[in-house]
Amino acid sequence: MGCFCAVPEEFYCEVLLLDESKLTLTTQQQGIKKSTKGSVVLGYVFRHLNLAEIDYFGLRYCDRSHQTYWLDPAKTLAEHKELINTGPPYTLYFGIKFYAEDPCKLKEEITRYQFFLQVKQDVLQGRLPCPMNTAAQLGAYIIQSELGDYDPYKHTAGYVSEYRFVPDQKEELEDAIERIHKTLMGQLPAEAEVNYLGVAKSLEMYGVDLHPVYGENKSEYFLGLTPIGVVVYKNKKQVGKYFWPRITKVHFKETQFELRVLGKDCNETSFFFEARNKITCKYLWKCCVEHHTFFRVPENESNSLSRKFSKFGSIGYKHRYSGRTSLQMTRDPSVQLPRPDQRIERSRSKTYPKRTQQT
């Protein structure tokens, strides 16, 4: 008989949450092993956060070369070889996988709060650029949510400078945030957060999942996956937009990624892009398949064009999105949302030394 050596089952993981706190998951405490399915790990995180609208969220991890992946609910932890090769210990990052087109319409306040934390992080880290007047409005809603109504006795000169809102923050922005904050009297944290999301959702890069690729002559492009389709950027400018119902196939082979689009003349056109390597190309393909599935209209409500191409992205590959779609979540009669008497514990943002006031 052959000798089979057992793979050590011990698992120790830290999940970094959107409020920058950490949730530790271990074999000893939760019984999580390398043979545990990703869905079980996700379940622990969702219960810890008391989330019901769970399908918008996921857990990311990075391999040793900093390539990002999403934890697959259907696979065991051991099958995520890129993750296993990084530890122990292991690190997972909780975040939004699918951005709701209108986050203000999410059913529960706790879900909107997690969206608020994610989008706030997107702005701070430069993934969601915004002009200064918009940044000032967003910053004021953050301060209102954190500190409540402006109080001249508590909120002394420079109080806004203790918080971070955008990369390379200037005093001019902080002064503008303070002026707007004074006008938001009476807004509760939940109201301020909904108003924040209402402004943020109108920004061009809101909810855009960017993937770097190359076009003709090795020119650099980004493919942005969004709730409505795929957007193509070159030199930070939008040069193409293809809506999900018009995208008939996505395919990859080695490092080549194909996007097949049906034109208004009913003729198909294929657009080819080159990824950095096969791993990033496959990751782009998987994300594209999942975005299409999550945001698509069900067949019985779509037109004949969508029904005709219902096998989107299936050539030669087995990957499928297994969760609920966006529409299914809004219409699921088995879950009554919002749940009554939900209490939310909000976390305070990290603060910094107050900016020295210049005389």
Automatic annotation (TrEMBL):
One of its GO terms (molecular function) is cytoskeletal protein binding. It is found in: Cytoplasm, Cytoskeleton. The keyword Hydrolase does not apply. Keywords: Cytoplasm, Cytoskeleton. The keyword Cytoplasm applies. SMART domains: B41 (SM00295), FA (SM01195), FERM_C (SM01196). It comes from the Eukaryota. Residues 323-333 have a biased composition (Polar residues). Pfam families: FA (PF08736), FERM_C (PF09380), FERM_M (PF00373), FERM_N (PF09379). InterPro entries: Band4.1-like4A_FERM_F1, Band_41_domain, Ez/rad/moesin-like, FA, FERM/acyl-CoA-bd_prot_sf, FERM_2, FERM_central, FERM_CS. GO terms for biological process: actomyosin structure organization. One of its GO terms (cellular component) is membrane. Residues 11-299 form the FERM domain. Its main location: cytoplasm. PANTHER family: 4.1 G PROTEIN (PTHR23280), BAND 4.1-LIKE PROTEIN 4A (PTHR23280:SF4). This is Erythrocyte membrane protein band 4.1-like 4A. It comes from Grus americana (Whooping crane). The gene is Epb41l4a.
